[in-house]
Amino acid sequence: MTSDFLVIGSGVAGLSFAIKAAQHGTVTVITKGELMNSNTAWAQGGISAVLPEGLRDPNDDCAKHIDDTLDAGGGLCHHDAVQIIVEEAAETIEELVAWGTEFDRDHEEPERYSLGKEGGHSERRILHAKDTTGREIATSLVETARKTKNITLLENHYAVDLITTGKLGSVTDDRVLGAYVLEIATGKVHTFESSRVILATGGCGKVYLYTTNPDSATGDGLAMAWRAGATISNMEFVQFHPTCFYNPAANGPEARSFLVSEAVRGEGAVLINHKGREFVTDHDPRGSLAPRDIVARAIDTEIKRTGAPCVFLDVSPLGNHFSERFPFIHETLLTYGHDATKKPIPVVPAAHYQCGGVVTDLQGKTTIRGLYAIGEVACTGLHGANRLASNSLLEGNVMARRALDAIMKAFPPGKEALSAPEIRSWESGDAAPPDELVNIYHNWDELRRTMQDYVSIVRTDNRLLRASRRLINLRKEVREFYWGNCVTPEILELRNLVTTASLIIDSALQRKESRGSHHTLDYPETKEACKKDTLLRRF
Ligand code: SIN
């Protein structure tokens, strides 16, 4: 299969790119699950934007949004990335609205949007659609993409590896030619050719036992880019969301995976401990609305200090506004048997967002020619050491436009810079089912528990090294499965998770300080000398 653009992933970044690129050439979008199964569709809170005067809060401006982003990012944000993305937010909102996204309007002045607040934001600037903003955006993008000529949408197609001019699996000589793709229904691996490949595969929350992410968040794009030789940055900065529902009645990972949006705190809910005391103010004067790294660490400390399994989110200050503004959260909690209007919500932190990723410039360009990365899989420098809430949907949509503009200038369809060498097809063509699927599930479990126990909110070198040793065996087993011709979604996901976990551990071991979402007891201070990105590349 050949197309001008090959987009891997169907969240806001991938689909927004595809819709625009389709005006210039043929676009193939592949996703390993269904189109709606993305982190985007799961986003609750919203998308941050300083709107034009008259529509925004009169106290707000881009300079404040920039300052808030820099402050949350712990000194590692790239100023140019922050400025550009913040300043292009209003335009990106217009684009989403044109594709059919309906953001909530102000009750009293319906010509204005209703603007919410979240941790680390000094003003109200979060556009939202109640508490299912991601679903609203994803639905409008999927519907638009389905109607757009020139786009082929392929669900249940899993990208196995990028094809580059280098030998597959060795150091690349820097040009992308396409990707090998597993068609899940038939087990066949096909060659998809394109000299413009856009990675928009999202994050890697499933590397941890407790995560707010959907099952699909297995670091696929990141691991593929790593294997192809792209530079990867800042993987130690895994953001933990402070408030996931803690459900002691549920057994296993589901117990801690339902997100209770930060927007709930933005509307006035407060974190308390089991004795009803507000404790986050012991750590930061902004209390429950401090940036996420601070709040997550405060909860972790409180849980360890008190021995309680969780803390609580008290939504009583919101009164009826809670169920009106957050119907999805309220109703979902009811299905778990918890009525938040009667009792505070038990919550714990869970892995939420990968702040690092495949290094790109502000046009989404990676270090491999023709390979672009946008959205959570990428590291543009916007988030630094800790992402400001609701900046991720914003980044995904802004960077989709910037990447397309760059491609159209550098090598638009029809003007291929170089002729493509012959691509060798996938060696076996057929994927054999693994004989011992149960081993894969055990390995997956072991990996996620190891990461949760040794590489989460508070780290030490010893814990990191222990995790690293455990990964050696897992890596060996994955290699045996994979090269034993075991190309199934389960083994591909495990392979990518092991790679991603290794990148997180290796990056964390390199950072001899605490900063943003990387906190280690061995180096508790933030050090000026360490104020630089961690860079990793496969040689
Ligand atoms: C939330 O709703 O709390 C998540 C928003 C985000 O991660 O930006």
Structural Rg? 22 Å
Helical proportion, percent range: 25-40%
Largest sheet: 5 strands, parallel
What is the name of the CATH architecture of one domain? Up-down Bundle
Q: What is the total tally of β strands?
A: 21
- Our estimate of the beta-strand percent is 15-25%
Count of alpha and pi helical runs: 15
Look up the CATH topology of one domain: Methane Monooxygenase Hydroxylase, Chain G, domain 1
Mean pLDDT: 93
What is the terminal-to-terminal distance? 30 Å
Q: Low-confidence parts lasting 5 or more residues at pLDDT below 50?
A: 168-172
CATH hierarchy, class of one domain: Mainly Alpha
Summary keywords:
16% strand; Methane Monooxygenase Hydroxylase, Chain G, domain 1; alpha/beta; four-stranded mixed sheet; 539 residues; five-stranded parallel sheet; single chain; Flavocytochrome C3, Chain A, domain 1; 15 helices
